[in-house]
């Protein structure tokens, strides 16, 4: 089934954190308006939306009524709830919007949202890379029947849009694999450094690693800087990645252990690591 959007569609962003604001800004050149739902959102979220020049509407119901496309960017644990809010708002609408599930969730979560909103109207989307304000750093992977229509909206934007196929869950599966590769590696360094600290063998371990060309202090510093304010978000992403791995019958312990490491970092309970500053709720 081919999906076409009219010229200058109205696009909604739920809810504009750092990534959502960047996606909203990237869509402005092709949109009639890019809107966000202000009810219950923090001052920090409102400021991000203002800086991205997004238009505020009162609530999710109003956003869903007005929009041709809705992009959901929220914490992974809230993805289904946000989709349910949209479903309630568009019930009975003869021309329901396309819904882009752009969170780091498991393929099963995306498919459940497809069942809720209609699989043909849901696009599975994931960003690999940081919030993009200039080209060359981030790729937006899309899958689902309407993936091509959404990819067209991002043509020439800072997000390089790539279509992975028509199957809901394919983009999220790719993100799960990438998350395990990148975020588990960082968690291993955190665990090694914490264990050496707890055992009191920091100096000896540093010396042994140095003999193999590894600078433990540099690795620890780089990972601590990388984690920054992302520890809780990475824990949630790894939980979803572990769910994805478990669903295909592979051991999920690596991802769940890494998620626990990040939760301890966020709480300040990992030896040698102070609690990370966390962004305000959006």
UniProtKB/TrEMBL annotation:
Family matches, as Pfam families: DUF1932, F420_oxidored
Domain Phosphogluconate dehydrogenase NAD-binding putative C-terminal: 196-265
Family matches, as InterPro entries: 6-PGluconate_DH-like_C_sf, 6PGD_dom2, NAD(P)-bd_dom_sf, P5C_Rdtase_cat_N, Pgluconate_DH_NAD-bd_C
Pyrroline-5-carboxylate reductase catalytic N-terminal domain location: 11-88
SUPFAM superfamilies hit by this protein: 6-phosphogluconate dehydrogenase C-terminal domain-like (SSF48179), NAD(P)-binding Rossmann-fold domains (SSF51735)
UniProt name for this protein: DUF1932 domain-containing protein
């Amino acid at each position: 089934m081919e999906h076409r959007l009219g010229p200058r569609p109205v696009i909604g962003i739920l809810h504009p954190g750092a990534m959502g604001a960047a996606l909203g800004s990237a869509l402005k050149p092709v949109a009639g308006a890019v809107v966000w739902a202000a009810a219950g959102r923090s001052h920090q979220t409102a400021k991000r939306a203002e800086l991205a020049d997004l238009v505020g509407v009162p609530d999710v119901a109003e956003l869903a009524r007005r929009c041709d496309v809705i992009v959901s960017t929220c914490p992974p644990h809230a993805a289904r709830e946000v989709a349910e809010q949209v479903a309630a708002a568009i019930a009975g609408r003869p021309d329901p919007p396309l819904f882009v599930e752009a969170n780091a969730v498991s393929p099963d979560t995306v498919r459940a949202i497809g069942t809720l909103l209609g699989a043909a109207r849901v696009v599975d989307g994931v960003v690999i890379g940081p919030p993009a304000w200039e080209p060359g750093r981030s790729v937006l992977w899309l899958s689902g029947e309407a993936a091509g229509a959404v990819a067209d909206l991002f043509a020439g934007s800072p997000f390089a849009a790539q279509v992975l196929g028509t199957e809901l869950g394919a983009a999220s599966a790719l993100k799960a694999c990438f998350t395990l590769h990148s975020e588990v590696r960082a968690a291993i360094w955190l665990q090694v450094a914490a264990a050496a600290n707890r055992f009191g063998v920091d100096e000896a371990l540093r010396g042994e690693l140095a003999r193999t060309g590894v600078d433990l202090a540099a690795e620890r510093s780089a990972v601590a800087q990388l984690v920054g304010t992302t520890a809780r978000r990475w824990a949630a992403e790894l939980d979803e990645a572990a769910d994805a791995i478990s669903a295909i019958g592979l051991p999920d312990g690596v991802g769940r252990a890494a998620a626990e490491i990040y939760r301890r970092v966020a709480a300040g309970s990992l030896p040698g690591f102070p609690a990370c500053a966390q962004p305000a709720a959006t």
